Amino acid sequence: MKKAGQRVAEMALEEYAFSTVLVDPPRAGLDEQSCEQLSEYAQIVYISCNPATLAENLTILTHTHRIERFALFDQFPFTDHCECGVLLTRRVVE
Asked: Where is the secretion signal located (predicted)?
């Protein structure tokens, strides 16, 4: 059993049904276990500073979700760095 702090306990998070998760991982991206946990949410908002690791993570996440929107932000002109934002929605199982 995990021990939660008093502030977290006061939030009563177990009473909420979260459907959307926001992730902004480090340049290394997410590990496979984290991607599996994300797949439980109806919507994923994924912010990335590394298109290469984003592509790797999307290979996993698109098994359960589809890409609804994708945006590329060139905040660092004349460099190789860029930011990406992706909205994923869980696929409907038919």
From this structure: none
**To which residue do tokens 């979700």 refer?**
65
Count of the separate structural domains present in the chain? 1
| Catalytic residue set | 49
Q: What is the pLDDT of residue 68?
A: 98
**Which three-class secondary structure state does DSSP give residue 56?**
helix
**73 within a domain of the structure (yes/no):** yes
- Confirm whether 15 is domain-assigned: no
Highest mean pLDDT among 8-17, 18-27, 74-83: 18-27
Q: Quick check: 51 and 84 in contact, CB under 8 A?
A: yes
Q: Is 24 annotated as a binding residue?
A: yes
Q: What is the DSSP letter of 2?
A: -
Check if the beta carbon of residue 69 is closer than 8 Å to that of residue 86: yes
Q: Is residue 39 part of a domain?
A: yes
